[in-house]
């Protein structure tokens, strides 16, 4: 039998269907009598009640993205029944809408590629170059300046460039660093780790768990988003949907069980609309689409 949070998502979908009748509501009332079910439903319903301003913002971002694309030629929300409803980086120096990427030329000569649904702040001083990745993903190509370290803060950690190029991805429960040139010093609390070219380091945002170690990785795969592709290797579905949602402009709800399912896949950024159905066909999950661009995934 599925977990209560999966069942709560199932009921959310069924009760929002136009065909919901008194018989279905009576069945729901019986299910709701169990304390664990009532708790799961309260969490799901609270999230759903707060979705209206989020889906409105996502629709606005999609409109902005389409206008920007026409002129030239967030971020989606992910929650395992949690409340990721605030928008980090609302007042950031640079932001991208769903489906929009930007290339930034910074005052020091460094370049930044900002992925869709991302937010970045920049604060250059006399002794340090400080940046903050509030949400999303960015690729940094750092101009050398030994007198002013280039430091990016993200997910409760700091990343100091050691003459380098690197990629940072910030999702709901971790920050991933991939180094494509030279080295980066990663620091979280009192832990420091040097990550070399061709390595990846995953850090949990909450700071719990054993000290992570760098792992060998193909940098071209980790930065494929810069070339119209998203590639995942045994990544949890929660992370995958966070990235897909940022690019496509979806609001995503997942059960905890669904969020943990590992995914190995490649998606084209130009054909993301097909991705949820592809995931539902190939993984043990059930997919529903609700009004306002809301995608619901729960474990089968």
UniProtKB/TrEMBL annotation:
Keywords: Membrane, Transmembrane, Transmembrane helix. Residues 190-216 are annotated as: Disordered. Residues 6-46 form the FecR N-terminal domain. This is FecR domain-containing protein. Residues 93-184 form the FecR protein domain. It comes from Rhodovulum sulfidophilum (Rhodobacter sulfidophilus). It holds the Pfam family FecR. It comes from the Bacteria. The chain crosses the membrane at residues 68-86.
């Amino acid at each position: 039998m599925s977990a209560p949070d999966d069942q709560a998502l199932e009921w959310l979908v069924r009760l929002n269907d136009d065909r919901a009748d008194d018989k279905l509501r009576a069945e729901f009332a019986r299910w709701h009598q169990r304390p664990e079910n009532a708790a799961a439903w309260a969490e799901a319903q609270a999230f759903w009640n707060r979705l209206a301003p989020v889906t409105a913002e996502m629709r606005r971002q999609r409109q902005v993205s389409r206008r920007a694309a026409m002129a030239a030629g967030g971020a989606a929300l992910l929650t395992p029944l949690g409340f990721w409803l605030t928008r980090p980086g609302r007042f950031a120096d640079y932001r991208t809408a769903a489906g929009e990427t930007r290339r930034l030329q910074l005052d020091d000569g460094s370049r930044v590629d900002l992925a869709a649904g991302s937010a970045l702040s920049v604060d250059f001083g006399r002794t340090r170059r400080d940046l903050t990745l509030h949400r999303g993903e960015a690729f940094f190509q750092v101009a050398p300046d030994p007198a002013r370290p280039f430091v990016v803060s993200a997910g409760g950690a700091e990343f100091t460039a050691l003459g380098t190029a690197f990629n940072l991805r910030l999702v709901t429960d971790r920050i991933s660093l991939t180094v494509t040139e030279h080295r980066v010093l990663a620091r979280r609390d009192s832990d420091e780790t040097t990550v070399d070219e061709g390595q990846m380091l995953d850090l949990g945002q909450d700071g719990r768990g054993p000290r992570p170690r760098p792992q060998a990785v193909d940098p071209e795969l980790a930065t494929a988003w810069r070339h119209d592709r998203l590639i995942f290797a045994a990544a949890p579905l929660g992370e995958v949907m966070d990235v897909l949602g940022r690019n496509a402009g979806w609001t995503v709800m997942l059960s905890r069980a669904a969020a943990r399912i590992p995914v190995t896949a490649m998606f084209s950024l130009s054909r993301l609309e097909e991705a949820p159905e592809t995931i539902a066909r190939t993984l043990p999950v059930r997919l529903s689409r609700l009004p306002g661009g809301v995608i619901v995934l729960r474990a089968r």
